[in-house]
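Per your request, structure below.
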């Protein structure tokens, strides 16, 4: 996101109406706390994905979002807090993308692409799930919500226990990360074969297989 200064350093070669709109948008952005928070989360996700958790700093997040460093702390206590917000947004975005899937194969392609686009973030998430109790707890809570959602939306799961659904869900997560990381290719298999096994795991969760 690009920060447009309201001072004299606004480029003068912008036509007046466009300049006026740019200034108006910047003012609205600063007045809307939800827009500021969303911009910080988006910037944080990009930073975590590119640099990893350890090498991401709150100042860089604020700068990337187009704000002064102190703005970050008006919305988040620390880097851990924004990481959890990014995780929540990441889960929602994957769920939204999956709404378009009609088959297990389509769902596998969507999930594999989503994980591959978030390699750095997913690596940090796996590490922090081991070392940080709050991240581990948030991930468990998210998985419980996913189990409940799957039970409510996929009739095939009506007779399955929550433990069985959890096992299938964990299998999907692991296979998706393996596809994204190229682990199947490391073992001499094609990415297509890896994604096919991901589709099979999704079928076990109740997604219909492609005819």
């Amino acid at each position: 996101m690009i920060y447009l200064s309201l001072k004299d350093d606004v480029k003068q070669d912008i036509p007046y109406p466009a300049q006026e709109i740019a200034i108006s948008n910047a003012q609205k952005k600063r007045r809307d706390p939800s827009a500021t928070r969303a911009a910080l989360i988006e910037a944080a996700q990009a930073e975590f994905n590119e640099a990893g958790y350890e090498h991401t700093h709150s100042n860089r997040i604020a700068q990337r979002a187009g704000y002064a460093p102190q703005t970050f702390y008006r919305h988040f206590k620390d880097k851990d807090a924004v990481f959890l917000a990014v995780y929540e947004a990441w889960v929602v975005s994957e769920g939204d993308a999956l709404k378009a899937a009609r088959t297990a194969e389509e769902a596998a392609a969507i999930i594999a692409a989503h994980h591959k686009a978030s390699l750095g973030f997913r690596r940090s998430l796996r590490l922090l799930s081991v070392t940080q109790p709050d991240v581990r707890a948030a991930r468990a809570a998210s998985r419980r919500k996913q189990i409940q959602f799957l039970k409510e939306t996929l009739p095939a799961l009506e007779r399955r226990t929550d433990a069985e659904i959890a096992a299938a869900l964990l299998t999907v997560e692991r296979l998706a990360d393996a596809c994204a990381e190229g682990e199947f290719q490391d073992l001499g298999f094609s990415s297509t074969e890896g994604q096919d096994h991901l589709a099979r795991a999704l079928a076990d969760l109740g997604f219909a297989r492609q005819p």
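The chain has eleven helices and no strands.

Regards,
D.
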